[in-house]
Amino acid sequence: MRADAIKDKVAIIGMGCTKFGENWDSSASDMIVDATYEAIEDAGVGLQDFEAAWVGTLWSGGTGIALAAPLKIGPIPITRVENACATGMETLRNACFGIACGLYDLVLAVAFEKLKDTGFAGLPDAGAHPVYGIGATAPGRWALAATRYFHNYNISPEDGKRALAKIAVKNHHNGSLSPKAHFQREITLEQALDAPIIAWPLGLFDCCPTTDGAAAAVICRADMAKSFRDDYVLVKGFGLAMGPGWGKENFDYDYSYLPETKQAGALAYEQVGIKEPRKEISLACLHDCFTIAELMEYEAMNFSPIGKAVEDVDAGTFTLEGELPVNTDGGLKSYGHPIGATGLRMCYELYKQLQGNAQLPARQLKNPKMGLALAQGGHPGMLMPIVTILGARD
Amino acid sequence: MVGIVSYGGYVPLFRLNRADIGKAWGGPARGGEKAVANFDEDSVTMAVAAAMDCINGIDRETIDGLYFASTTSPYREKQCAAIVAGALDLRRQIFSGDFSASLRAGTIALKAAVDAVQSGSAKKVLVTASDCRLGVPRSEFEQDFSDGAAALIIGDSDVAVTIEGSYSHTDEFMDLWRSQEDIFVKSWEDRFILMHGYGDNLREAVSGIIKKYNMTPKDFAKAVYYAPDARRHREMVRTLGFSPEQVQDPMFDRLGHTGAAFSLMMLVAALEEAKAGDKILFVSYGDGADAFILQATEQIERSRDRKGVKGHLQSKRMLPNYEKYVSNRELMVGKEAQRRPAMVSYPPVLWRDRHWVLSLHASKCRQCGRLFFPPQRVCLYCQAKDDFEEVRLSDRKGKLFNFCKDNLALSGDPPTILTQVHLDGDVRVYCQMTDRDPDEVEVGMPQEMTFRRMHEAGGYPNYFWKSRPVR
Q: N or C terminus of chain A: which is more exposed, having fewer CB within 10 Å?
């Protein structure tokens, strides 16, 4: 890997994001149009200016036509990408490669997902084996991690659930300050602790909702960015790491850590030259599909020492006022999780925060310089994590 | 000498107090409790469980044939013996057959196995009998009928019980029946069927075999004979000329009537107590009758480690109420019917993966010696390619490494306990846990593997292995 191949080569000059939620009155195409038009208006470019485009979705469409058809663009090169819950970030990553290699000057990245038409709370079982793994759900798979994390660090289920509940309370608070979030209400610690169990030890408030949404980014060569706007945001680095995915069956994997995610972070830190992430990162959007995921990601991203994440939660390290605010927009927990769109939505929050443009001043951080987003497909034992680091221009 | 080489039994973990049935319907209840298959059990899975108990310690390569006897085969067309043979990991070169339709199916299969060994066409035949019949709600049958299985290996060497003689007759008689469409067992008026069906046939078989072999009731240490219920069993003692001490307890108070498996389960219970030299009279009924004279040998002591009928009867949990029974036996549709079907199944996948789906094989790397389930062509630990042997995991025990209790997963018995079990030999199996109390699940608890019905996607039962707390 050439560590300097991406850093400061690509700029984001416009972004858009639909309202996330149960968008019964919007089709996938409607959301693509809404997110894209916000992004091009933000960038001050026209649809016909794009030389190429990338589009990401897990289930809600196929091929580049999913993007070209609603926007009436082309013929231009359009690539559909997919990497489970990291799809949105994979879309941006591949679009940035198109710029960084010098082939294109201005490209569009759009990611979307339409989940609520399935009539099912939770995700459909796609391509499952007839009997192996039957009964495994997303919350169930993360609950396995919670069981072992608590067991390994000798945390009682009660104490463990309390730490997770604090993460849920934090993300609901942040979501209450995000007008586009799926949920915009605060919850109490007691509500989180007393909620019905979805997959023990995870309760209702430990789980993100199923959500519809789309996000879009306009990106260009960094040296051109100034011609579009002063407060462009620079792409600093990407880390993607996948393993064989047999952790569930690997006798030696004990579920207390996320090895692929740790590696994805390490790759990104190397590209950016970050040595002490807890000090150097101003804010982070982590993949809190379940609260236990956010807890374990504090350690995978090297924000917290191994086995000490609960102590940092108790100390308020990751609140809006804390040392390293995490999920300032409410995260997957409150903003919602339209699978394909999530990674790009995280970048939307970093972009707005780095520009000083968070939708409500109450959650705008003071002068953030460097933002990290982690979008993570899969589940412990089989992860597809991508880390994106964005920076404010000097 | 041909005889029984090994025996095994299976009684599902759950029991229903008959008083709960009476309470549900506002009527009288027969005493005691009955065994009820869990929501993921059927006659095939129970046959596998009994056969696993029976085959313990016996080289599977020596088995030449497998019979499956049941009136509740999950299939009208398709052989269940083949499924049972796959789950047991028997070799391919066996002959197999299903015996069905009659309460006597278990002993008809036994007779066929004895004849096969006697004729020299087989050295060892495994006979399984398993049933899961439904009595229509509010009927006496609902209180009587229960679920269970038995297995016997018939062979001509190392025989624990010799088969000294047999007698059969066939009688066309309309007492109990299910037509192609019936779920519940139907019957004619009990006074008629008890007198001319059960009564006439059983007496005829007992007198027939005693006369054929010049014996008297006094010659037998034990009489094991079928009866439709406890009262008729008691009444028959006097008629047959046995003293009550000679008679095998039919277990109606704690097991119930297990259909085509019932006679064989009573026989297994008798063998569990038999001493070398004991002569046993064994009679079953259904569309006629089969009778056998058996004698225990010194080898009977070899099978003492079987869980059998007695061991499984002792290991039990009570169903909390009648509604749970209704749910387990699918007498009413539950919440799952409100949700869209989520499961899929593809026979080519099940066929390709039969070595591990049915036979629960792991791969054992020839380079590093590590085990992996499901089997993998490239070793997860040392990356050796296509250099492994397959080893069977179904008879290994282990410990619970990890679990969750999932209410979101579609299940007839929520929460789904998703587990990783570490079996002996350091291999991890990712599966569901069954026959458990969710409140008692904890890391480290002892586990064993059990063959179960996962779902009915594709319009057929999809079988796989689950873990359960060691019984």
A: C
Question: How many CA atoms lie less than 13 Å away from A46 in the CB half-sphere?
Answer: 3
pLDDT reading at A121 higher than 80: no
A136 contact B CB<8A: yes
Looking at residue A127, its pLDDT comes to: 64
User: Same structural domain for residues B166 and B257?
Assistant: yes
Distance of residue B336 Cα from the nearest chain A Cα, in angstroms: 12
Q: Taking each helix axis as running N to C, give the angle between helix B200-212 and helix B230-240, from 0 to 180 degrees, rounded to the nearest 10.
A: 40
DSSP classification of residue A196: P
Let me know the angle formed at the C-alpha of B392 by B388 and B398, rounded to the nearest 5 degrees. 110
Using pLDDT thresholds of 50, 70 and 90, give the confidence band for residue B339: low
Query: Are B399 and B254 in the same domain?
Result: no
Q: With the CA atoms of B459, B460, B461 and B464 taken in that order, what torsion angle do they form, in degrees rounded to the nearest 10?
A: -100
Q: State the pLDDT confidence band at B410, using cuts at 50, 70 and 90.
A: confident
Complete domains list, chain A, with CATH: 10-116 (3.40.47.10)
In chain B, the residue whose alpha carbon lies closest to the alpha carbon of A124 is: B342
Suggest the residue from B354, B357, B420 to mutate for an interface test with chain A (most A CBs closer than 10 A): B420
Measured between alpha carbons, how far is A360 from A378 in angstroms, rounded to an integer? 32
- Number of domains composing chain B: 2
pLDDT in tens, A246-273: 999 999 999 999 999 999 999 999 999 9
pLDDT given at position A3: 84
Tell me whether residue A285 is one of the annotated catalytic residues: no
Could you report the per-residue pLDDT of B71-112, keeping only the tens digit for each? 999 999 999 999 999 999 999 999 999 999 999 999 999 999
Give the mean model confidence (pLDDT) for residues B396-425: 94
Cα A358 to Cα A310, A353, B252: the distances in Å are 28, 5, 73
A357 to A8, A20, A323, A363, B219: CA distances (angstroms) = 21, 19, 20, 10, 99
Alpha carbon A283 to its chain centroid, in Å, reads 13
Domain span at residue B449 reads: 346-469
Q: Tell me what ipTM this predicted complex has.
A: 0.89
From A287, A337, A347, A379, the catalytic residue: A337
Residue B439 domain flag: yes
